[in-house]
Amino acid sequence: xxxxxxxxxxxxxxxxxxxxxxxxxxxxxxxxxxxxxxxxxxxxxxxxxxxxxxxxxxxxxxxxxxxxxxxxxxxxxxxxxxxxxxxxxxxxxxxxxxxxxxxxxxxxxxxxxxxxxxxxxxxxxxxxxxxxxxxxxxxxxxxxxxxxxxxxxxxxxxxxxxxxxxxxxxxxxxxxxxxxxxxxxxxxxxxxxxxxxxxxxxxxxxxxxxxxxxxxxxxxxxxxxxxxxxxxxxxxxxxxxxxxxxxxxxxxxxxxxxxxxxxxxxxxxxxxxxxxxxxxxxxxxxxxxxxxxxxxxxxxxxxxxxxxxxxxxxxxxxxxxxxxxxxxxxxxxxxxxxxxxxxxxxxxxxxxxxxxxxxxxxxxxxxxxxxxxxxxxxxxxxxxxxxxxxxxxxxxxxxxxxxxxxxxxxxxxxxxxxxxxxxxxxxxxxxxxxxxxxxxxxxxxxxxxxxxxxxxxxxxxxxxxxxxxxxxxxxxxxxxxxxxxxxxxxxxxxxxxxxx
Length: 500
Description:
The protein is an alpha/beta fold. 34% of the residues lie in helices and 22% in strands. The strands form 5 sheets. It has a 9-stranded mixed sheet with strand order 11-12-10-13-14-15-16-17-18, with helices on both faces. A 6-stranded mixed sheet has the order 19-20-24-21-22-23, with helices on both faces. Strands 4-9-8-7-6 form a 5-stranded mixed sheet. Strand 14 (253-257), helix 10 and strand 15 form a beta-alpha-beta unit. The longest helix has 15 residues, at 122-136.
């Protein structure tokens, strides 16, 4: 179902919060022990159900007196070990795993006035608490997912919305079963919109996250081969991302990329209201007259009822797609093209995501080390060649992770794309570097143009090979830690370390 409807931003009010004079009162988002028990199904070990907490925290380093401490048991740290410390800091409420109760019972915290709630799983309890707060919230929620561009889209949307509305938005990489609930638990009475990012690496993850946040508007930015270890295939990616649709209410809207054939097909199969964005003439929210420079992108934003010339302080044509997704959300919030454009002026890219860094020695480093998958690699290669123009383009890549059975083919494909793009020199590091090199040679690069090895060797060779006006792009999955190449090259190229 196609839609170009507009919804208004409304202040978060509880339907039952009306004073005797008939004036609506803001929701109080503090949490009682009774709320915790109701939300999580937990067991009260000590304390009173009437005790009130003003916030929820999981980090012993930042939690404050008056907060409820939820002891998260993760891969590397167990929050239960920090409970004595947070009690010394003045915390008077803790949520623990039931399996830990016997071990902790001898601490006699109840003698110190500490309220103690036991739950089956503290990570799930954190999500249940966030879902409870979401049910109390009467404003609107936007959930953003996709293989590429979800973080940038969320940041662009926040830049627009914060100009006109009190807006709560995910920060950093708060897009999983811990980060998303923590964002929701930061609700304040004056928040009119919530912008959340939903990530995944297996089936069911977005279903759980969207059950917690129940988005009024869902955004799927793109579909690309990523997290294939968890979902098996590109069709699996579509299924996993489409889980967000299960929790969009009747009358809600999903925003889809009209330039992505997988999302076009998805849009035909669903009953939810659909708003398409893209460069396609079939899109409801369009971009045309696109012009790129080394510092910004300009395009005409065409909405159903208005238009504006947009300036983005960003690099890479793929940024236009992210901007259109954000503009679509702005349109649904009732904003005009000019208002959306004014919001875009506040946007700046995330560190390590297509950051263009000029240097004293005259070469330009493009730091895109935050993450990588085959789709974002292809977009980055195109951006490198565009920015280089008549100058030399050099690519440094690390492994792409979580690609399952497609790992070999997709690493060869990246190398082949680099070879076909006319890149003058390719460096590859990591266990799959040989596959990238193999693909590059198949794409037309000769063996002297392709170098594989450890990071230190690559850094040494780059310092010998780089020339004034060269453009060098560094990219890889987060686990590849490609910033370990960017930082020393940036220091050297900026003249701070004048090494041979």
